[in-house]
């Protein structure tokens, strides 16, 4: 990170604050008002370029989002791709999912961008995770691989038969920041063209998996205007989303709370238990 910041002309210190560690590592540099986003590898170059393009396009449409800085980016450093974003101090995530519903309603009302976007397809990144993971039981990797095999065909058929519209791709409450009175939608790495229902599935799943109150989900539905659980394609999108969440967690599940949560998710997936409570980490 220090090498990339130097290349971009940003002063930094070794005690930069780690904000999030997942598919990317995010570090805050409050003194210069910048968040540094470090991708896992240069193999994610297309996704990083797309994220920057989407962010700039959203800014041009005055959509409430986080903007990349004016630095020349991405920067390649130590085998990783680094991008630089505006820092939102004292931000928090919203208490109510209606904030997310309103953002998605407005996002889905935008025209399709005037640059190419990929068709929604979460399976390549899931398979890449499964190919490179270490420290996970072989039978768990095999089960998830077979589950992806079983789900992929139905998912592709559903996407191909649905209108191709702009979707955020990873639309959950954790990707909303409150900046004073403004709600900002962040993280455009998974943005694609596909069925709008994909962006509604995480909140619907949260009722069973993460304890979201049914009344809160009802508020989400009223604000957005559609209940995705009534759509015929919901079961296909749900299992695909759950496999994505589980393979994401798998990358950090060698020990500690992540390992315990991964084991819980694996047990529920094996049993087909759709109401087993999961825990966000």
Entry keywords:
single chain, alpha+beta, Kinase-like_dom_sf, 281 residues, Aminoglycoside_PTrfase, two-stranded antiparallel sheet, 5-stranded antiparallel β-sheet, globular, Aminoglycoside 3'-phosphotransferase, Chain: A, domain 2, Phosphorylase Kinase, domain 1, 2 domains, Aminoglycoside phosphotransferase family protein
Descriptive account of the structure:
The protein is α+β, with helices and mostly antiparallel strands and 281 residues long. It has two domains: 2-86, Phosphorylase Kinase, domain 1; 97-271, Aminoglycoside 3'-phosphotransferase, Chain: A, domain 2 (Alpha-Beta Complex), CATH 3.90.1200. It has nine helices and nine strands. It has helices at 2-7, 45-60, 97-108, 123-132, 138-160, 197-209, 214-224, 234-250, 256-271, and strands at 17-21, 24-29, 34-39, 75-77, 80-86, 165-167, 176-179, 182-185, 192-194. Strand 7 and strand 8 (182-185) form a beta hairpin. Helix 3 packs parallel to helix 7, helix 4 (123-132) runs parallel beside helix 8 and helix 5 (138-160) runs antiparallel to helix 8. The mean pLDDT is 92. This is Aminoglycoside phosphotransferase family protein. It comes from Streptomyces coffeae. Residues 34-230 form the Aminoglycoside phosphotransferase domain.
């Amino acid at each position: 990170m220090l090498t990339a910041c130097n290349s971009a002309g940003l002063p930094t210190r070794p005690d930069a604050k780690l904000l999030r560690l997942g598919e990317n590592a995010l570090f805050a540099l409050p003194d210069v008002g910048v968040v540094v986003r470090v991708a896992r590898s240069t193999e994610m170059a297309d996704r990083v370029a797309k994220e920057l393009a989407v962010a700039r396009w959203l800014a041009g449409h005055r959509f409430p989002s986080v903007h990349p800085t004016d630095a020349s980016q991405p920067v390649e450093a130590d085998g990783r791709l680094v991008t630089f974003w505006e820092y939102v101090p004292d931000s928090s995530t919203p208490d109510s999912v209606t904030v997310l519903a309103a953002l998605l309603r407005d996002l889905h009302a935008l025209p399709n961008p005037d640059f190419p976007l990929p068709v929604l397809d979460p399976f390549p990144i899931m398979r890449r995770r499964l190919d490179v993971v270490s420290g996970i039981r072989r039978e768990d990797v095999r089960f998830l691989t077979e589950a992806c095999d079983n789900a992929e065909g139905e998912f592709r058929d559903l996407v191909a038969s649905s209108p191709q519209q702009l979707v955020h791709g990873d639309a959950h409450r954790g990707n909303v920041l409150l900046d004073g009175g403004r709600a900002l939608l962040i993280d455009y790495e998974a943005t694609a063209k596909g069925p709008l229902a994909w962006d509604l599935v995480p909140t619907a799943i949260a009722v069973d998996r993460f304890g979201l109150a049914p009344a809160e989900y009802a508020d989400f539905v009223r604000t957005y205007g559609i209940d995705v659980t009534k759509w015929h394609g919901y079961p296909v999108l749900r299992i695909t989303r759950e496999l994505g969440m589980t393979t994401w967690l798998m990358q950090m599940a060698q020990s500690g709370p992540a390992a315990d949560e991964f084991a819980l998710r694996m047990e529920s997936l094996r049993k087909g238990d759709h109401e087993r409570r999961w825990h966000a980490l």
